[in-house]
Write a structure and sequence with these properties.
Elements (H helix, E strand, L loop, with lengths): L2 H13 L3 H7 L6 H6 L8 H10 L4 H5 L8 H4 L4 H8 L3 H28 L9
Amino acid sequence: MGIVADRIRTRLKLLGLSPRAASLRAGRQPFAVRDILAGRNENPKSDLILDLARALVCSTDYLLGLSDKPASALSAIDIDPKLIGALRRIPASEQGTVRRMLEGVADAAHAEFDADSALKPKKPLKPG
């Protein structure tokens, strides 16, 4: 079994995806990932690796074994890959509703943070 298959397995487990779901998320035939995992495609082409890296929220370097860190643009902003995986599974018809819900939670959390900050004095009080 190759490094690409190992890395794909790791990302599938982390994101809670099946090989079929990952293949479809990558815009490929439902069996594309299964073939890699089963050894039927031991040398996937670069365009497939790129599509899989996007679908599995990691870099192509990680999938190819050139890096041990799955670093992607999303990991640079500290977003849990499981959250990204869950968000990607939301049907298009429900995405607007979920977006509004998330924005509401984020706005409420921001408002609570601002309220907490307002209770703290801006400057230390001088004894007087």
